[in-house]
Structures are given as structure tokens and as C-alpha cells.
Write a structure and sequence with these properties.
The chain is of the alpha/beta class. About 45% of the residues lie in helices and about 20% in strands.
Length: about 550
């Protein structure tokens, strides 16, 4: 098979097939997590990121137009470092091909090059042995072999082969991968997407799982439209029509004539024809007329209609309820009911539930920005895997008044909030105080190993108690308290530390607080200890030491 050009419809099918292949291997990609902590979700983050792009994208025969909407959706839905890097790759791909209705050999080559360069630019400290490496070497090793006569299949085949070679070398680029005996999970997931795209060209179409839904939205408040309401916004109507050859139906379908007729009934019209199927979007005051007209040609595969007046009234209500104006607003991400309450009580205006693995999307941050009315906004990601998504949200929102304080744990976020001076009129000073709050904070995370692990001189078996200092495993054993004490002992300036805050995880017995207090206070009699019921998942204890 030899394909010289692909349009937006072809590309959409390829990308969906890429998602389907990634979904098939999602758990496998997750299991490549280096650390024995049950938060390995690289595969899930990439599925959610690409899935959001596909859900957001608008079908178009114009490849560049399809890519732009796909990229927009991926940027907003990006989760975790792997998801952000993936979204940035497709951003560069889309920017390069924005004026390309058809993608040929030259366009594909240039898009792949622009894609990896954009991804590199998005990372402050690019690390080799990751998605970045396979994307870069994959195209750089074959770019001179691509000619105007190259087929899309041959280019993708060479690209994937070179990426596979680089993937096999990722353990040599990152010692932590070599010690763990794995390849980079994000790089593997990236390759799977392109393998799925290539399979589509060869006719191997895979039925994707149902795309993961976005976070549940609150139900529409139907009281916002009643007997006294005005109706001017109409209905947002979307459907897929299957044209039928039965003699009961018209056989003279013509896309341009079809659109011309729809213009009598509404606006914001988009019509995409894929064989005998017609996808339609229209805003109309008269959906019954649209339905009757379309049914002359066939029957509906899907149909969706929303009252836009209700949505309009709801937006007006949100604006009315918007928080009062203030000099500085704080947005924090946490996991756990106790931590949510704590950060709210500390003065955070919005506390986002990051979920078990603390992976908040860029869209959630953008939405949070819109919900506060403040001269300046501070974001506390409280996890290293959220920082890129938070920074990407700032870029997407185009806001100049947002500062992301790169807190890498809830412990750092807690001390940042503790350093805030709400009574001060000097916003810049308040932000600098919060930034100083995360400086020199040691974070210990204690949990149970989710799998066997070995790296340098540290080894553990599944089920062992382990403790990490910042992001490095320091102590392994059968006694949770001993792992904490051993880890505290390696902190260089531990004797100069004065405060220790311990967040207890969900399911950890309350009596362990007293047990741990006696051990710690005996070892560090000059230190103040505070216990907080955080109810966080995964980590039994998160400990901040200042």
C-alpha cells in the first residue's frame, strides 16, 4: 500500500487508532513506573491527554484545521509530565501544518521536526532518555531519506523503527531506568500512538475503548429556565446522519446544497462528510425543521441537543456569584478530604482535588483562574508531576498575573501558606514570602512498596515499608516508624530543623500518631511536632520538616 497524501479525515482516523493501541497497552505503560509506589500512571495520563484532544477536535477534510483543534484539546487536557510533553509535540506538529489541507512527505517530515522542537522548548530542563529523545532521534535519523516520492507508510515505518532503537537505549541514557530494568514509559507510550496511526493506514483498524469522560460536571440547573424566561439563544444541535439507499430516501445528496438549506434554519453550521455518513453541528431555534430536513436523506446514528438559553443563564449566574475582588488569590492541588479542609482553612480560594495520583489537567487550572477575581493569583501544584500542567495553563490562559510556586509536595505547600501575610497590601511581598516558605523544606513520604525494586544500594520487596526523602528512596524495612527515623537521620541539617508537620494518610490508625510522637520527640527533643489528619491516598505519612 502506498499513500502519498492524507487529509484531515484520514488523519482523524489515524489518531483515533493511535489512541486505541495506546489504550490496549495502558496498564503495561503504567507498570514501567520506576519507583515502587502505586502512582505509576504515565499510560493513563497519555490516554487522557490524547483522548481529550480527540473529543475536542472538530472533524475536517483540512488536515491543518483538524490538527489545530486536536492540539487545542490536548493542551487543555494535558495531565502529568508525559501528557504535557505529548501535547506540546502535537502543538508543534499543528503549528507547522496549520496551512496544510493535505499532508505529504515533506509536510510530515517538517511536522515531526517542529513537534519535537516544541516539546523540548516546553521543558525547562530537558532530560534525555524520555519521549524527547525518541521523538528527536526518530526523525533526525531519517530526515535525509525522505523524498517527495516517499509514501506516508514508509516514513512512519522508518520513524517508528528509529524510535524503537532509541527506546532500547533509554536505560543507557538514564541510570535509574537501567537499575530498574525498564525502558522509559512515556517514550514507549509515544511510539505506541504512532504504531496505531500506521496500522490504520494498513487497514488494521482497532475498535477503541470508549473515550474517558471528563470530570463529571454538575447537573444543569433547570430552574434557570421557567415560564417567565426569554428564549433567544436556541438549541445547540449535533448529529451523525447515515444516508440510506432505500427508495424512501432522497438520493440527490450534495454537501453544498445541504449546507445552503441548513442556513435557513440556523447558524454556526459545520458539516463533515465521511462516505455515506454526515456529521452536522448547528445552532437553531427550530430543531424540528432541521430534523425533518435531514431525515429526507437517512436516519440518525447519534443525536444531541442542548438548550443554549439554560447554559447562557447559568453563565450569567456564575458571573453573579463570582468571588469578591481581592489583591491575591491562591489555588492549591491536594488529595484527601483532610488536606482539602486544611488548605481551605489556611486561606486558599480554590482547592482542586488532584485525585489519587495528583494529576490535574491544564484545563482545570484555566477554569480555576476564571473563578477568582484578584489582582494576582498564586498556584501551589504540590506535586512535581503537576508543575508542567500548571505552567502550561498559565500560557494557555494568557494571564500575566499568575505565579506558579513550584511546591513539590503538600508539605511544601503547607509551609508556603504558613508564610503568607494576608493582612499585607504588598502583593509582591506576599508572593515572595510564600516562595521562601518552600525553600529548605525536607519532605519525607512513607508508604508500602507496590512491587520489587532495586536501584544502587536500595532494594525492596513488594509489601515492604519504604520511606522517600523528597523523591529518593532512603529506607526500607518491616517497621514503618523505623523507616521514617532512618530517613530523618540522613537530612544534613536535621539538628537545625525546628518544626515537623506530619500528615496522616487514609486508613492509618490514629493511635500511631502517639506512637510516632514518642519516638520522634525522644530523638529530636528540641523540635516541635504537629499531626494533621490529611486522609491522603497512597502515602501513609507525608512529613514536612523545616
Amino acid at each position: 500500500m502506498s499513500t502519498r497524501r492524507i487529509n484531515g479525515i484520514h488523519l482523524e482516523k489515524m489518531v483515533k487508532n493511535g489512541l486505541a493501541v495506546l489504550q490496549q497497552h495502558e496498564d503495561e505503560v503504567n507498570r514501567l513506573n520506576v519507583f515502587p509506589v502505586p502512582d505509576g500512571d504515565t499510560g493513563t495520563n497519555m490516554v487522557l491527554t490524547l483522548g481529550n484532544g480527540i473529543r475536542y477536535a472538530k472533524s475536517s477534510e483540512d488536515a491543518g484545521a483538524y490538527l489545530r483543534s486536536l492540539s487545542d484539546g490536548m493542551l487543555l487536557g494535558a495531565r502529568g509530565n508525559s501528557g504535557v510533553i505529548l501535547s506540546q509535540f502535537f502543538k508543534g506538529f499543528a503549528v507547522e501544518l496549520t496551512r496544510s489541507p493535505l499532508i505529504g512527505p515533506g509536510e510530515l517530515r517538517n511536522g515531526l521536526i517542529r513537534g519535537y522542537r516544541c516539546a523540548y522548548d516546553a521543558v525547562v530542563h530537558p532530560v534525555e532518555g524520555t519521549i524527547l529523545s525518541v521523538a528527536r532521534e526518530g526523525i533526525e535519523h531519517i530526515r535525509t531519506q525522505i523524498t517527495r516520492n516517499s509514501s506516508i507508510e514508509s516514513i512512519l515505518s522508518m520513524y517508528i523503527a528509529e524510535m524503537r532503537k532509541t527506546l532500547s537505549f533509554t536505560p543507557e541514557m538514564l541510570s535509574v531506568l537501567k537499575e530498574a530494568g525498564v525502558v522509559d514509559s512515556g517514550a514507549y507510550g509515544f511510539i505506541l500512538i504512532f504504531e496505531g496511526m500506521l496500522k490504520c493506514l494498513y487497514g488494521e483498524v482497532i475498535d477503541p475503548k470508549e473515550l474517558p469522560l471528563p470530570q463529571a460536571q454538575p447537573p444543569v440547573d433547570l430552574s434557570l429556565f421557567n415560564e417567565n424566561s426569554e428564549f433567544s439563544d436556541g438549541y445547540c444541535t449535533e448529529f451523525i446522519l447515515q444516508r440510506l439507499v432505500n427508495s424512501k430516501y432522497r438520493q440527490d445528496f450534495n454537501k453544498d446544497d445541504f449546507i445552503a438549506e441548513l442556513r435557513f434554519y440556523g447558524n454556526s453550521i459545520a458539516v463533515v462528510v465521511d462516505g455515506t455518513r454526515v456529521k452536522v453541528h448547528i445552532h437553531t431555534l427550530y430543531p424540528a425543521k432541521v430534523i425533518a430536513f435531514a431525515q429526507q436523506y437517512g436516519e440518525f446514528l447519534t443525536f444531541k441537543m442542548d438548550n443554549m438559553q439554560v447554559q447562557h443563564n447559568e453563565r450569567d449566574l456564575i458571573v453573579e456569584k463570582k468571588q469578591e475582588h481581592k489583591p491575591l488569590a491562591v489555588i492549591a492541588v491536594v488529595n484527601g478530604e483532610g488536606l482539602h479542609t486544611l488548605f481551605s482553612n489556611l486561606g486558599c480560594d480554590i482547592v482542586i482535588d488532584g485525585g489519587t495520583t495528583m494529576n490535574t489537567s491544564s484545563a482545570e487550572f484555566v477554569e480555576a483562574f476564571s473563578q477568582v477575581d484578584a489582582d494576582a493569583i498564586v498556584v501551589l501544584p504540590n506535586n512535581p508531576n503537576i508543575i508542567l500542567a500548571a505552567n502550561q495553563a498559565v500560557e494557555l490562559s494568557k494571564r500575566k498575573n499568575v505565579t506558579v510556586i513550584e511546591s513539590r509536595s503538600v508539605a511544601q505547600g503547607y509551609f508556603a501558606m504558613a508564610m503568607d501575610i494576608p493582612d499585607s497590601d504588598d502583593t509582591a511581598f506576599r508572593i515572595s514570602q510564600m516562595q521562601s516558605g518552600i525553600a529548605d523544606i525536607a519532605t519525607i513520604s512513607q508508604t508500602v512498596a507496590s512491587r520489587d525494586y532495586s536501584f544502587h544500594e536500595i532494594s525492596c520487596r513488594k509489601g515492604d515499608e519504604i520511606a522517600l526523602l523528597d523523591s529518593e528512596i532512603v529506607s526500607v524495612g518491616s517497621d514503618y516508624a523505623k523507616t521514617i527515623l532512618d530517613t530523618m537521620a540522613v537530612i544534613e541539617d536535621i539538628d537545625d530543623k525546628e518544626t515537623c508537620v506530619l500528615f496522616r494518610g487514609i486508613g492509618v490508625p490514629e493511635e500511631r500518631e502517639e506512637e510516632l510522637y514518642e519516638l520522634l520527640s525522644a530523638k529530636y527533643p528540641m523540635m516541635d511536632f504537629e499531626f494533621i489528619d490529611g486522609k491522603q491516598e497512597i502515602y501513609h505519612w507525608i512529613i514536612g520538616i523545616a
